[in-house]
Amino acid sequence: MSEHPIGAKPEASHFPRRNRIMSGLSLGVLVAEAGEESGAHITARFALEQDREVFAIPGSIFSPGSRGANRWIQEGAKLVTRTEDILEELNVAVIGQQTELKSLLPSTPLEHQLLQHLSRDPTHIDLVVRHSGLPITDVSSALAMMELKGLVRQVGGMNFVVAR
Questions:
Q1: Contact between residue 161 and residue 115 where contact means Cβ atoms under 8 Å apart
Q2: Residue 111 maps to which CATH number?
Q3: Starting from the edge strand earliest in sequence, which strands make up the sheet with 78-79, in order?
Q4: Under the phi-then-psi rule, with left for phi > 0, alpha for psi from -120 to 50, and beta for the rest, what region is 6?
Q5: Is the pTM here over 0.85, yes or no?
Q6: CB–CB of 80/55 below 8 Å?
Q7: Three-class DSSP category at 46
Q8: What is the pLDDT of residue 100?
């Protein structure tokens, strides 16, 4: 990522501009193993200016490479000791759960109609066809797609159950 045209030679002055773009595209910035005046320090400063979260992994107080991250923690960056610290702070786990739940919802009227004829008890495909009034080819292909999506499971002998 760059404000410079393709083929521009890398120069030290280009990196802070690139880091500003990267922090602007991010929900947050994680500082790890950073000196006090490193590129990570510059990126974290941009992140704060852009109302992004700043996270930092603590390091040894004797390591020059940890001084930047430790300073950010001292100044209010969120301390990170495990990946879940970031996911929880950004509410990313909830986004994943919402996406997962959304994928369990029927996405077509046909899927919705077929789910009306299925339960946790095994139901044979012929019974689904009979009750839905749909052609076997439509029911069979729709159930196969629903199985791939995780909406239904085939439990043997062309019997299907709702997978929720």
A1: no
A2: 1.10.10.10
A3: 28-31, 53-56, 78-79
A4: beta
A5: no
A6: yes
A7: helix
A8: 54
